[in-house]
Write a structure and sequence with these properties.
globular, 9 helices, mainly alpha, 6% strand, 62% helix, 299 residues, two-stranded parallel sheet
Length: 299
């Protein structure tokens, strides 16, 4: 009885050992076989899918077009790519600062045939570097053109009306004093800002119109030209010609104004006023081609 039970237990132990051995050894083999089977199945499925896409394309043109039009990934439907591009403005290299750009917009030598505008350059126009003689010539044109005498007469009238310098008095003699002082101030400003300083600092004394963008963008560009200009090589730089030149002109004016105006305070006020006026001049020069084209319809 005991012998039978021992034999039965021994047999049961051998069976359990065989089962454990089968599990330990056979599981990895089974897993490898399953992976190989999955790989073969995936390859076969890919080949079948490729065949199913290419085969109808050979027999049915409509199906071929539909297959070609399928997106590469679901993200192509969620985030479609656009082919629209914005072309930069086309720059024209010429010697004529008043040449029209691709949009037909251009600067003119005078605004409304009266106000001098010799320093302005049309948008998208690239000019060669200036010589010192050309810089001085431009300063002289801005100072002694017939239109400059007309503009000075208007400025002198406003100054006398507001009694800016009581020592000049009123009447014809008073107006004459206002007038020649205004002409002298204009010449000082032009020859310092547009002549001597650009030669000294190797800077371009012309105003290059932006001509593109929103009202805010063009306005900021124009006003910022008081502080930013171009070198003779066309690179942006701090506008030493404007800032230092206008300060030198304000100091020079003390030589012919009454003694009570020969103070640092008066020089600083005239210096700041000159820069503010030039900022306004840059602003209307920026918008003059637009007004000339769409308001006055000038070609």
């Amino acid at each position: 009885m005991h012998f039978c039970n021992y034999s039965q237990l021994r047999l049961t132990g051998l069976q359990l050992g065989a089962v454990l051995l089968t599990i330990v050894v056979g599981a990895p083999l089974t897993l490898r076989a399953q992976q190989a089977l999955d790989a073969n199945t995936s390859s076969a499925a890919s080949a079948s899918e490729s065949s199913s896409l290419s085969s109808p394309a050979q027999n049915d043109p409509a199906t071929a077009v539909a297959a070609v039009d399928l997106p590469d990934a679901p993200s192509a439907l969620l985030f479609p790519q656009t082919t629209q591009t914005t072309n930069p403005p086309q720059t024209t290299q010429t010697n004529d600062p008043y040449a029209a750009n691709a949009e037909g917009s251009k600067q003119t030598k005078r605004v409304l045939g009266i106000i001098p505008n010799f320093s302005s350059v049309s948008a998208d126009i690239k000019l060669p570097p200036q010589t010192p003689k050309e810089k001085l010539t431009l300063a002289a044109k801005n100072s002694f053109d017939y239109s400059s005498f007309f503009v000075a007469s208007i400025q002198a009238g406003f100054a006398m009306d507001s009694n800016s310098y009581p020592e000049f008095h009123q009447g014809v003699k008073g107006y004459a004093r206002y007038y020649w002082h205004t002409l002298a101030d204009t010449a000082d400003e032009n020859f310092m800002v547009s002549g001597a300083a650009p030669i000294l600092f190797h800077q371009d004394n012309r105003f290059y119109t932006l001509g593109h963008g929103s009202f805010r963008k063009r306005t900021f560009y124009a006003i910022s030209r008081v502080l930013i200009t171009r070198t003779d090589n066309g690179n942006p730089t701090f506008n030493f010609s404007e800032v230092i030149g206008s300060g030198a002109a304000a100091g020079l004016s003390t030589l012919y104004y009454p003694k009570q105006y020969q103070t640092w305070t008066k020089v600083g006020q005239k210096w700041l006023t000159s820069d503010l006026i030039d900022g306004f001049n840059f602003w209307w020069k920026e918008w003059w081609p637009t007004a000339n084209k769409y308001v006055f319809h000038t070609k």
